[in-house]
Amino acid sequence: MNILLATQKPFAAAAVKGITDILEAAGHKVAKLEKYAEQSDLVAAVADAEALIIRSDKVTEEVMAAAPKLKIVVRAGAGFDNVDLAAATARGIVVMNTPGQNSNAVAELALCLMIFMARTQLTPATGSELLGKRLGVQAYGNVGRLVGQKAKALGMEICALDPFLTDEQIIAGGAQPVHSVEELYAASDYLSIHIPALPSTIKSIGYDLVTRMPKGATLVNTARKEVIDEEGLMKALEERTDLKYVTDVMPDNYAAMQEKFGMRVFATPKKMGAQTAEANVNAGLAAARQIVDFFATGNRKFQVNK
Question: Cystine design at 160: which of 65, 137, 138, 263 (Cβ 3.0–4.6 Å)?
Answer without folding.
Answer: 137
